[in-house]
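Q: I have 290 residues here and want to know how they pack in 3D. Can you give me a structure?
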Amino acid sequence: MSDSDLQISYKGGDADRHTVEMRSLALSLLGLERIISVGLIFMAYDRLPRRKERHQLAVKAREPEAGSAVIPIDLSALATLLPLGWWTLQTGAAEVIGHFMTYVFARLGSRQSDADKAMDALVKIREIEAGERAETQRQWLEHEAGWRDQLFTLANRLAASAIKAVAPVGPSVDQMKLNGAASPFTIDLPTADAIRAKGELEVTDLQEIDLRLDGFVHHSKKLNVENPEKLGTFISADIRDPAFDTVPNVYTEAANTKSVLRVRAKLGYRASVLEKIYVMDCGGRLDHAA
């Protein structure tokens, strides 16, 4: 991976066999292309794109890396074709657009702390650029406040493209990773579901909880569990732990005996009501609670 590359990698599920379901991959690339194009316009020209505007630079994907589900996106032409200023030379276009994409996906995916970090990285880039132009502090503060508002508006406008971009996550693969910014950003199923819910699903950070298993949801990676916030009622839990793919496992054994597991999970709330549970891994069986 060169400094001029963004890298999109798909992991888990079909991607473990170096494949991705064709239609969802096509949607994903279309959504990513739109987000990158909009990001180029916004960062290069310091304005919101006009309706249906595409940047004149065609975003090009290279051939996937052998034996992987990784797609490099070449941004090397930016240095000569875009008036991107000092950051193309000092930071690299891939890193700046990587921060922009991270902000969009984190903002729409109910991951505000990650969105704040990406925003801070973009603001830092702009602060240095403003210093190079010798702007006054007052001019900078006025312009920066308006710019933040535009970025927030732009992320909301890109919701439909973000939904396309995460299309493989869940139906075909377990996660999608964006490599371009200093810190790669991983879009897992909870994040993808939050993006698809258009702001209606709030997803928590990873936390440890105890779940009583009640049985299987056939032909899926889900189990019925007792709702930890409304005992006596039941809800399905998405099991995203790779250990679930090998049978028997701690989950199937606990489901057969309706035992309690201590797990690390993310919880999804709609209108403050628990709607989804995403189990990422298991800390062990609590036989004494069965």
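Q: Anything worth noting?
A: The first helix runs from residue 22 to 45. The mean pLDDT is 83.
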